[in-house]
Design a protein that fits this description.
Elements: H1 3-33, H2 41-51, H3 53-73, H4 80-111, H5 115-146
Helix pairs in contact: 1-3, 1-5, 2-4, 3-4, 4-5
């Protein structure tokens, strides 16, 4: 197995992990924010924020940026258009994270429980969730093409 195939295989594992993480956040974690009482909310959110770097933030940002490298390091049997579509999904996730989600997390951590901000967090996370889902689909297609019998 050459580097490009190994790199794509590594990314496949990473994006599948991230796919599970983002759907769990969308359907369970973010809705649970609304269930925490106002008095405990800032403490809860600070704890949440302190616990997510290793399982969520590092793999998440990797899944946004690695597809750019795949454009240039993809196996020869993977069409450029497929790699570009995958990278577009990653960049969508990056934009949603930086422009929409992180500012809302800061507002919740500073201002405490704000139901309208929690609803925005959930609503604005849908494009990221769908982008990561798209990346997973495109990645599995690339993997199938890369490892198809010649």
């Amino acid at each position: 197995m050459d580097f490009s195939h190994g790199f794509l295989l590594f990314y496949t594992v990473l994006i599948c992990y991230n796919l599970g993480t983002i759907w769990f956040a969308q359907l369970v974690v973010y809705p649970l924010f609304a269930k925490v009482g106002p008095a405990e909310y800032v403490t809860y959110h600070k704890f949440y924020s302190s616990q997510i770097p290793l399982p969520v933030i590092i793999p998440g940002f990797s899944c946004f940026l690695v597809p750019i490298a795949i454009i240039f390091l993809r196996p020869g049997s993977v069409p450029l258009g497929l790699a570009l579509a995958n990278a577009a999904c990653g960049l969508l996730g990056l934009w949603v994270t930086v422009a929409l989600e992180i500012p809302r997390h800061f507002r919740l951590e500073r201002g405490g429980k704000q139901p309208e901000v929690i609803q925005e967090l959930i609503a604005y996370n849908w494009p990221r969730t769908l982008g990561i889902t798209g990346s997973a689909v495109f990645t599995l297609a690339m993997l199938a093409l890369a490892f198809a019998p010649a």
